[in-house]
Amino acid sequence: xxxxxxxxxxxxxxxxxxxxxxxxxxxxxxxxxxxxxxxxxxxxxxxxxxxxxxxxxxxxxxxxxxxxxxxxxxxxxxxxxxxxxxxxxxxxxxxxxxxxxxxxxxxxxxxxxxxxxxxxxxxxxxxxxxxxxxxxxxxxxxxxxxxxxxxxxxxxxxxxxxxxxxxxxxxxxxxxxxxxxxxxxxxxxxxxxxxxxxxxxxxxxxxxxxxxxxxxxxxxxxxxxxxxxxxxxxxxxxxxx
Length: 241
Fold this sequence. Notes:
Elements: E1 2-11, E2 14-24, E3 29-33, H1 40-48, E4 57-62, E5 65-66, H2 72-77, E6 80-83, H3 95-99, H4 109-118, H5 123-126, H6 137-151, E7 155-159, H7 169-182, E8 186-191, E9 202-207, E10 210-215, H8 217-227
Parallel strand pairs: 3-8, 3-9, 6-7, 7-8
Antiparallel strand pairs: 1-2, 1-4, 4-5, 9-10
Helix pairs in contact: 4-6
């Protein structure tokens, strides 16, 4: 179980995350929605342990082990992985090399083909292509989604996986999340699209660095549609109001 206990984050004297309390259970899908600038990506980076995103208050626990001060590599070893909103560019690597971490990750040809099919890429057309300017942003994002699947994460943080792909991405994202759950993992999906909440067991709304609503997806989507469209990030009603 992954827990955030009273987690806060400040950068340059500005409070970005405020007293967050979240629990992500085993084989669960959580969707975190919120408008642009609400702190969604900062939350993803804080869970992953990126440099500069160490909580300024509170704790992060994994199975009651305090990992607040763990870096990215140590968290990755424990099964926490992040898919970036904007995939990195790597020159000189083929898709196969990228997916297998340069050959360090031992996976079969059938596994490679399965994940590429799942993200909508033909193995015969893509497996030996270069992961650089020869691929579009949407194609690189699909490749990164495939790489997350091969890592068999315990907790996969997907930062806006629906952006930059196409209008058919929702079904693909559902399939990817289902595969993560099937392999024993949990998914934390960061998004600003209310449609994506339908894949969740639990949905949350993040606004102005605070969780203002958590619950069943339909209930939370209704709140998001009826309140967040007119929210100006001030006087935000919090959970229970």
